[in-house]
Design brief:
Layout (H helix, E strand, L loop, with lengths): L6 E4 L3 E13 L2 E10 L5 E5 L9 E2 L3 H12 L12 H12 L4 H15 L6 H22 L3 H11 L1 H4 L7
Antiparallel strand pairs: 1-2, 1-5, 2-3, 3-4
Helix pairs in contact: 1-3, 2-4, 3-4, 4-5
Length: 171
């Protein structure tokens, strides 16, 4: 069970703080909810206490898990490249991974989209997923590693400097 003022991660939303526990009547039944405020967008959600783990609510990853995510982001050996796969199919697969409770899954989406952007132009939806994945990864890693979000983002972007900084075209 989580307690007020505890930092937690909720899939696809990111890092938040449990502001309080609240009891409410829902459908004739009394239920207890975590009231969580997220740092990235300052929204507040109610998560049922009895379904919290099923819905993916978790504590922040450990320092060793954060290091493993950074190592996985640097490892390009699993990237197969653009294989002509339909952007819509990729979008759905990546969206599902972003809903995962695993930071490694979110990091996988981030890595794939960055590397894919080096091979082809991303669709609008893929660019949004890239931004969302970057925000989710950097917000959690910055808290765990006690670094500023911009520093973590710069570190990740440095892993992919060859992809993100494209040479100017000469005419």
């Amino acid at each position: 069970m989580y307690v007020p003022d505890q930092l937690v991660v909720y899939p696809a939303q990111g890092v938040g703080v449990i502001e309080r526990l609240e009891r409410q009547q829902v459908g004739g039944y009394e239920a207890e909810f975590y009231i969580i405020r997220f740092f990235t967008n300052n929204i507040t959600v109610m998560v049922p206490v009895n379904n919290a783990t099923t819905l993916g609510l978790r504590t922040l990853c450990s320092t060793s898990e954060a290091d493993a995510v950074l190592d996985a982001l640097q490892d390009r050996s699993t990237f197969t490249g653009y294989s002509g796969q339909n952007w819509n199919r990729r979008y759905r697969a990546y969206s599902e991974r972003l809903k995962s409770a695993s930071l490694l899954d979110v990091g996988y989406v981030l890595k794939e989209l960055i590397l894919l952007s080096g091979e082809k132009e991303l669709s609008f939806g893929e660019r949004r997923l890239l931004e969302q994945a970057m925000a989710l990864v950097t917000s959690e890693l910055s808290r765990v590693l006690n670094r500023h979000v911009d520093d973590v983002k710069a570190l990740i972007e440095n892993f992919y400097a060859d992809v993100l900084i494209k040479p100017e075209k000469t005419i």
